[in-house]
Each structure stands twice: as C-alpha cells, then as structure tokens.
Amino acid sequence: MAYDLKLRVWRGDATGGDLGDYTVEVSEGEVVLDALHRVQATQAGDLAIRWNCKAGKCGSCSAEINGKPRLLCMTRLSDFDPTDTITVTPVRAFPVIRDLVTDVSFNYQKARELPSFAPPPRDADGKRRMAQVDVERGQEFRKCIECFLCQNVCHVVRDHEDNKEAFAGPRFFLRYAELDMHPLDTHDRRELAQGAAGLGMCNITKCCTEVCPEGIKITDNAIIPMKERVVDRKFDPLVWLGSKIGLRAKDDEGRTEV
Amino acid sequence: MSESRHPMTGNEMSGDAAGGMERHQYDVVVVGAGGAGLRAAIAAHDAGARTAIVCKSLLGKAHTVMAEGGIAAAMGNRWPEDNWEVHFRDTMRGGKMLNNWRMAQLHAQEAPERVMELEDWGALFDRTDDGLISQRDFGGHKYARLAHVGDRTGLEMIRTLQQRAVALGIDVFMELTVTDLFQDDSDGTPKISGAFGYWRETGRFVVFEAPTVILATGGIGKSFKVTSNSWEYTGDGHALALRAGAHLINMEFVQFHPTGMVWPPSVKGLLVTESVRGDGGILKNSEGERFMFDYIPEFFKAETADTVEEADAWYEDKKNNRRPPELLPRDEVARAINSEIKAGRGTPHGGIYLDIASRRTPEFIRKRLPSMYHQFKELADVDITKEPMEIGPTCHYVMGGVEVDPDTQESAVKGLYAVGECSGGMHGSNRLGGNSLGDLLVFGKRAGEYATTYAQSLGDTRPAIDESEVKAAERSALAPFEVEGGENSYTIQSDLQQSMNDLVGIIRTADELEQSLKEIEDFKLRAKEMKVEGHRQYNPGWHLALDLRNMLVVSEAIARAALAREESRGGHTRNDFPGPDPVWGTKNLVVSLNEAGDGVELAEKPLPVMPDDLKTYFESK
C-alpha cells in the first residue's frame, strides 16, 4: 500500500518564503503529519512544525492543507488521491514565525482580557449542585481544543488585520457563552462581549463552525444565543425603562455586570 | 505592559540585554505546564511567591489533555461508604505495596478537596441525579470514584487550571525548554540558584535566577516506540534532577496501558480509555472467548467475579456481585492481553478485541465515550457503536521518578522539587487509573506551597548563579551544532525507541536487558557525533538533539533497574523471575548519576515503614 506522495510545504520566516517540493514514501492509514515527520527525519531536519499529541486532542498542529484550515494529525492521506500533490501552508490569520509555525499570541492576549468564572459560595455541606442538563450546554463549548482554526478562518480578522484590536473571535465568543450559560456564574458579561470583544462584528457566516475539528456548533449554539441575550438587554423597552427609573434590570438573573 | 514583552507570550524580557543573556528573577520557577505544574504555580502564587511557569509547548497543550477517564477522589457522591481509607487501601494494593505509604495517604485524603477546587474555578464535571459531581468505575478502585467529564477529563482539568493561572496573572514562558539547573554550594550544601533554557522560537538563551525549581515535566514514554505519550515526554525532569544530584526511584516500573490502538500504524499506541471497560466493554480473543477469567491472580481472587453472569450483574448491582476481571489493575490486564496475542489468538492487526458495541446502545456509547467514538471514526474508520475495537498494550506511564519527601515534594537537592509523573513513590509498582490526575493536583499544591515557604525564608540572601556555569550551559546547548558529518537526531531516537520496545518492554529477561544496556552505550556514542542542520530559530532537529540526551540517561536508568530487580511486580515483569519476591517487596532501587557523569548507578534502600494503624487495612478479614 506504500506509495510516493508529492508534498509542497511552505518554508520561510517573517521576511518571506516559498513552497518547497518534497517526495516521501507514505503508507496506509497515515495522516499528513506522518508525511511531514518523514520529511523532517529524512530530508529537512529543521522543518518547523508545531505539534504535540498527534491525536486531535491538543490542537497544536493547525495549518492549511490545500488551502483548507485543518489539523495535520487528523487529515488522513486516504482523503486524497495518491496522485494528488498535497500543499501545506501555515495558517493565514497569524504572523509566521518559521515554516508552518505561526505566532498565535493574539489568542493568549484575548484570553487575558476575559473576566473569569465567579461562583457563589458552596452549599452548606461544602458541595455544589448543578443539573446534568444545565452543565451540558457549557460542556459542548469546553470541548474546544484551542486549535484556533475558527480564529484563522474568521473573515473579520483573516481579511482585516486592523480588526484584531476590537475583536476576540469565535473561540472567545464560545468562552463568553460558556460562562453566560454556567448555572452558577454570578457575572453578567453581555456588555463586555458586545463592546470589548466585538461580538457585534460577527455576521454569522458560520465559517468557524465549518472548520471546528470538535464539531462544536459555534455559531448556532454560542454566538447566536449570545447575540440574542445582548439584544434582550439592550433593546427590550421594559428593561430600558427599568434601568432608567432605577429598578433592577429584569433579565440579569441576579448577575453582576463586569 | 511594557514594550519589552515577548511577542509570543507577553512575558517581560530584559530589553537592555541586547545580544546578551535574557534574565529573570523569581521565587519559584515551575518547569512544565501540565496539571501538576499549573497547580503548583497556582499554589505558589497564592502563597505569595513571584512565580513563573516555563513550558516546552504552548499553554494548554501539555500531555494532561490526553487523560481521559477521570480524577480518583473518595468524595462519596455515589457510594457514601467510600472514604480516604478505602482509596488508600486500593492505591497500595494496586501498587503491590511498594508505594510510599505517606504519599498514598495524603493523596487519598486530599484529592476530594482538590477536585472541588477545580469546580470553584469553573470546571464542569458530569453530574449525578441529585446534582453532585458524578463518579465512575475504574480498574482497581473498590467504588465508583472517578470525577469525570465524558472521556475528556484531562482537557477539562488543564483548561480549568490554565484559565485560573491566566486569571491570576502568573507569568508564563511558552515554548521555552529548560536544559540545565544551577546550584550554589559556596557553604558546602548545594542549593538551587536558578535554571537555564532556550526559547524554541528564537533559539535565544534565558537565565532564571530563583532559589526553587519545581520539576513538573511528566514522563518518559517517547523512549519507547509504541506509546500513548506525546513528543514532550522525553524524561527532562528525571534527567535534570539526576544531573543536579537528586535520585530517582522505581524506574523499573513502566506502565503499559492494556488498551492502545493497534491500527492504523500511524496511530499505533494511541490511548483507548479504561472507561470503555468501566462502562461495560469486554475483552475477547480471535476465538471470541472472554479470556480475562483465565487470568485472575491469587492476589485479587476474593474481589473478582469468576463467572460471566456475576461479572455482568456487577454493572447493575455492585453490592451483591464482584467486579469483572476486565477491571483488574492495568498491569494484570496488559499481561493477559500480551499472553493471548503471543499464544496466537490475536486479531488481524496483532491486537485483541475490545467490545462495547454488542453490550451497550449506540446512544450510551456516544454519550459516555464521545472522544473514543470520534477517534476511531476519524483515524481508523471504525464505528465503535457497531463493531469491536482492536487494541493492544502501549507504553503509557512511568511509576518511577524523582525521590521526594512525601509531604513537601522536595528532592535530595535543596530547593529542587518534583511533582506529578516525574516524581516517584506515590504509585509504587503500578498506578491505578484515575490516580494520576489526583496526584498532579494534591502534590502540585503541596510543592507550590512548600517551595514558597522555603524561598521566603531566605529573605534577601539568595543562592547565587556562578557565571562560569552559565557559559557551560550555553556551550552544552550549542554543542550539537559543532559536529559535522554525523547522523541526525531523528535516526538515533528512532533506533532507541525500537530497542527499548524490543528489549525493555512489557515482558523482560536478563539477556535482553543486558543487550539493551549495550545498545544504550552505543546510542550514547552515536549521540556524541550527532549533527544538526540549519540555525537556532524554531529548529526541531536541534530540540530533539537536546531532548535525546535526557532520553538516553532515563532509558539507562530503566534498563539498569529492571535488570537488578529479580522478581515480577506491578509494571515490571521478568520472564526469568515470574513471581513476586517478598524480599524485593521491602525495598526500592535508587538511581543516581555515576561519578563520571556519563551513566547511572543503583543502590538498594528499604521502603519507609508504614505505621501500625495503617497496616490494619491490609490484614486479612
């Protein structure tokens, strides 16, 4: 079943680079990362690739394969015809460090800007109680492996570098939604999601959902409900009146705005 | 944030050191950002230490994300009769009584509160019907005891700790590898004075001036060909500790997890969680026989079902039935699988069958084992709700590690601590599933606190770094670039992995272990001549060359200890000494670096003596 695979791999750094051609022997059941490792071991010892678990669980090996954002370790060679040339390039939304490795610090920066979980005290017996059905909403979002493919594919930053300042991206809308839906959280982050994180800039083209290797319904289950909750607060005339005349806002469920 | 921040990490750099050495001062430097490292850093920060986390990969990518099953903690949410004493007993028996009793006790006592803390920090565990944290069954645990999130508990744990560390504003140095530790022995007692490392991104060197270093670097699995471990598991902490003058114990005990994927070849070794068996999966050979009933050892006979009827009834009625033999501790199950394959009753791809499809509904399987479903579907074209999985043993965990004080986690070197997989003692000769994540949390917190206490006790008189040591560390890190014409690091690593797999694997003999020591000597010579192409910027060939040094010394430690221990116990099975030997059951093998610094040597040391009140848990009833 072994055959010679033709690979084109982007080599270079921040100052520029080019596609390099490599031919490597590959065998049945292998993934693109296997082929790249073989290039590394036999032809280009210094080929830079970021990877860890090789099992689709750590989200390190994001790249673009024939222009599509994918995980290198979860893209099977059997998805391609043996005569196809496979082209691998670094993710486009982030600056290149070297070869297939990019500077993803944008994401770590945005993570720091997000107020963390704020629970009430534990129950009298020292435990906390939540219903399975309630934790499941947040659990879907916590499947996120932080591969940042959703960030990479989102046109708000992919095509408009200058939006990065004001836009946290789908990965962090997930996080806002997760905290907002957490049965015990005491903070109200809607204002922040809309303002500082730029939720309003998302126009729900669902590109993020399409590339998510964990199959998280980012747009339908996180972004749209979050947008609805922002709208409820911002534009509900009763809430508006309530806050104007000094009554507690009706839809804050006892949460404190941050 | 000042301008001199690292673009990748946001860490502050000393901008005035242009072309010079970047330097940082901390009270506590934690090496490794898996569960143990993050928990240690949080504890140190909370205790008031200036704390740094230094990790080889990006934050949140550590091997802890691969942990699937859960965190063992006697919270009693499903079984009120569960308590720390039962957990302690299970842990010691699972480790065949070779555990450091004090660590096993502390772990069992403190794990429940460590799990609750994760919930305080935002973890979303699966729930029981009355809303408490759910607990699932696992091998070797008397009661359902593992707090879990589907089969991705490790991801939940690391994300929770990562988000906590970020919220606290702890400095993180990502993609920075530590290659040397510094010590000050000006008063005759060597004390940690700092650490040396390089940024993967730029190849530039960094010096950390700190009186304490907590090693939380994980395991050694990458020395073996078939492993569930990621590339990072090159025994860095084990090797750093040895070179600093600390000792390793229990290095002969390597856990081969019974269920790794065997096909396709590219994912051979990838973990299949024990939860598959905890949730009803059974093991069958190619003749369709449920063979585990033939492999119940005397030690566990009293608590293991000996008929299919009783084993199956256990899932519904645990009070009146004994556990199925598929849920024996991992060493027993791995050996049984190995024997079946060797006897010619293996599957087409050289494994055996793990079947849950014929025993549970597709809905149940997809709900309880989502990542397993996904993993087999994506990587092997197998639908585990319809057909059995093919699995076989895979190198998963090293019980051995740095010998530490059980309460403080401090090694023999003042200021040097070790936690998690790179420490030794807690798990004895075999670790129970679920006890790793608890270990990380319990001892991570302890190390962080004790390191802080020590650092603060020093006041302003900090151990100093000798500049000649910095120069030496620099030369040592750059040495692979000096060589011309040798082999590359990938070839040597691949040969080492094959050799360890063949000669120091799940079943061992004196001949093969002696052969492996000869081969390791040969690899050491080849490594001296190893060449690196390219330059220092994000160069994986260079990174591997440096990691390989650690892999070699750790491999030698394993092979030497395995040759010396002439018995079979837990994760160490000798064909030429098939049973446990009560004399060997009273002592540890302690590994140190030899005088010349080019190899390791062994010493025997009696186990710490368990107090009488704890001994009563093991007296037959």
In brief:
The complex is a heterodimer of chains A (258) and B (621). By secondary structure, chain A is α/β, with parallel strands linked by helices.
What is the SS-derived class of chain B? alpha/beta
The third-level CATH topology of the largest domain in chain A is Fumarate Reductase Iron-sulfur Protein, Chain B, domain 2
pLDDT averaged residue by residue of chain B: 94
From the alpha carbons, calculate the radius of gyration of chain A and give it in angstroms: 22 Å
Text of the CATH class of the largest domain in chain A = Mainly Alpha
Biggest sheet statistics of chain A: 5 strands, mixed
| Distance between the first and last residues' Cα of chain B | 64 Å
Structural class of chain A: alpha/beta
Overall geometry of chain A comes to elongated
Tally of strands of chain B:
21
Uncertain segments of chain B are 14-18
Overall shape of chain B: globular
Whole-number average pLDDT of chain A? 92
Helix content class of chain B: 25-40%
Strands in their spatial order, largest beta sheet of chain B: 7-3-2-11-18
Cα distance, first to last residue of chain A? Answer: 58 Å
- Describe the strand arrangement of the main beta sheet of chain A, using strand numbers: 2-1-5-3-4
> Which oligomeric form is depicted?
heterodimer
Describe the sheet with the most strands of chain B: 5 strands, parallel
Question: What is the fourth-level CATH superfamily of the largest domain in chain A?
Answer: Alpha-helical ferredoxin
